Structure formats: structure tokens, C-alpha cells
Amino acid sequence: MLKRERYNTNKLHKRLRRQVGTAIADFNMIEAGDRVMVCLSGGKDSYALLDILINLQSHAPLQFELIAVNLDQKQPGFPEHVLPEYLTKIGIPFRIVEQDTYSVVKRVITEGKTTCSLCSRLRRGVLYRIAGELGATKIALGHHRDDILETLFLNMFYGGKLKAMPPKLVSDDGQNIVIRPLAYCKEKDLATYADMANFPIIPCNLCGSQDNLQRQAIKEMMQQWDKKFPGRLETMFRSIQNIQLSHLADPSHYDFSGLKAHGEPVIDGDKAFDEETFEPTVEEMTLSDSANTVSSSFISR
Question: Fewer C-beta neighbours within 10 Å, C or N terminus of the chain?
């Protein structure tokens, strides 16, 4: 690798590691003594997640375990040797789980229909079971910032809900804590890093390309926004961290019916007759790493 390439790789790795460390600290994702089950699909995101967590593990001020888990869904042509060879090479404990969810999905879902929903539900159930068998205290998934924003828009456009993927949650069965340490990481950064690191990527061809998927349409919309309006995705992500329930319209989450005037000024109260103005922040104007300094106790200095 050329000197310049090494420099760029190291710079990108430091940025991703900082973002992961910050997300872990912000949401208390990993605690001392945790056994973290890292779900490894063979895609770029899960490879990057495992790689960064291994690096943080050796520098973090607290002790935690990592174990990689891959679910072999018995897709035709799946290269079974790739992940065991890779995980053995890097010296990380792992478990390969064989479960033929592929046949179930192909039998249940009509040809040409979206398979992702059923596939993910079946996969989730198996991974919850394995987490219990392994004594894992956290399940780490490789969803990144763009996945979270895509889910937000999918729910808004097609589900009528203001809902995204949280960085940390309790699993459907109530038995596990699921974490998304890549919550602050951009997909394009992860793709670049995976290419630089030369991870042995395994494509998911269970569903084919399915170019007409709703998520793919949202992804393309966001990519266009990112090209035409640099910084927009960053601003959108900040919006889900800065929610004002009093300025939405859900009476089940805010007591609109009991709202009374009390004669005292209200910070961020309704400015019904004022035109909304949105001044760019310093971060949006600079769009540089220098505006993203991190003070996280999780990351060793």
C-alpha cells in the first residue's frame, strides 16, 4: 500500500472508530463484563463493525468480550468457507449457525415479491436463540446512519409513523439488548473502508437485486440529496436526536387536551405569526472533521 493510501485508510479508520466510540458512550451500549455477540453477515457493514469493535476492545478502559456469529441460511452457492477462514485468521471467537431459512422464504413468498421482511424475522428469531445459548449480554448489528434515516422515511412515506431504528433497544422477545454501534457512521465511509481493508465480501443474493424495493427508492433519494445538498443528511440525523413532542401532533405522547395558558414565557413556544428561518450551523458550513471533536470516555486517548 502506498504511503498516501495508508494515510487515508488510517484517517478513515480513526474517524469511524471515533464515531463508534461516541455512539457506544452516548447510549451506554457496552458495559464492563459484557459479552457482545457481533452478527456477521459477510457484508461490508458487519465486517467494518467487527473490525472496529476489535480495535476498541484493545484500547477501551473497560473489559468486554466479543464473539462473531454468522447465520448460514443455506442460500445456493453460499461460500461456506469464507467466514470461518477469515475469523480464524484474525483470531476472534466465532460460531457459524446453519439454519435453512432460504427454503422457507422461497416457499412462502410469491416469486417477485419482497423477501426482506420474512427473511429478517426468521433471522432475528434464530439470532435471539443463539444469543441465549452463548450467554451474550448484547447483540451488535451493523446498521449505520443511512439505514436509520432510510427507515425513518420508509415509516413516514409508507407506514404513516414517525419512527426509525434506535441505536439501542430491547429485543422483541424481551430477553436481549440490541445495539447498533455504527449509528453515527455514513454508509459511503463504511464502503470505502471495506474496500481499503479488502474484506472478503459475500453478497446477499437471496432476494436478487430487487431494484424496485421501497428501501432502494429511499436510498436513491437520499443519495441525490447528499450530492446536491452536502450536509443535509447530517442535519436530518440530528433532527431525530432533537425531538419536540409539543410541536408534533400525537395526543398519546403529549397532553394537548390538558394544555392551559399559565402566564409564563415558554422556551420554544409556538410562534404562530413568525416565519420559520433556519440558519446553518458552523458544522454545516464547515463540514469538516474538525467540527466533530469527540470527548468520549469510551475511547482511549
Answer: C
